[in-house]
Sequence to fold (331 residues):
Amino acid sequence: MWRYGLPLLMFLALAVLLYSGLGKDTHLVPSPLINKPAPLFSLPDLLDPTRKVENAALKGKPYLLNVWASWCAACRQEHPVLMRFAAEKRLTLVGFNWKDAPADALAVIRTTGNPYDLIASDEVGRVGIDFGVYGAPESFLIDADGKILYKHVGPLDQDSIRSKILPLLPPGCQP
Amino acid sequence: MSSLTRSGAAFGLLFAGLVASSAWAIDSLTFSSTAQEQRFQALTQELRCLVCQNQNLADSDAELARDLRLEVYEMLVAGKSNAEIKGFLVDRYGEFVLYQPPVRGGTIALWFGPIALLIFGFFLARRWWRRPTANPSAVTASGVAQNGDNDPGEFP
Fold:
């Protein structure tokens, strides 16, 4: 029994272990900030640098914080998805312009359209570090109490919005 | 005479430049002591770069790695302890940034799995070597019994 049972058991254990790793994106770093309050920031408004964007003022309504930059190719791919999502008016969209020159970012917004209700400009990337940003695009879903519900790494698409973001929203925002 | 000292100073500067040209030298960070610099070096070597995930912060050329090196540097200069600096990064990026994850529930298999497997393998191997003596018919078949003793160490 042990003679054949044990190797078989070990083989099965190894098979399960290896199978569970298949198809996993090893570059995905799980965020420790999920279910924690989003770091507070006060950053210049990209569209009007004399004004500040403060996320403390956004409390009371959930919002999607989308990390993007003009130098980021995947953000261009994500842009039409955000434009369509913005048109549905389900959620406040806050752009987080990360490690980008404001002039370059403005040029992108002027030529391709602005899906965001507000855009914060984090030119040096300090606040990005507080959010654990390690690439663009990234998106954080933040609830009415300012808690991070979900982090999406990489460009959002129609599917990920429908399956990952919309189900987490309060009933009023859902389709 | 003065031109000699000047060229000597120039050579000294050049030499200092060569010695100081380590990875973070491009960040132009200045340290108050070599001990501080060594702490910085050790810390950035223990921390993983999030962009090039098989590189540490010290070696990575990624923009984010440079920003994080600067962050580490500023905390170091501000007098924060190593644990505080690591805690700062773990709070934001998770334990993934540590090349040496702490020992706790979820990482027990990681820390002790290899040694547990080794011990398991050792017992398995011992059982395997002992088998001929435990089974008389197998002993004669394998030829070990010709030695006249039960010493498992002499299995060919």
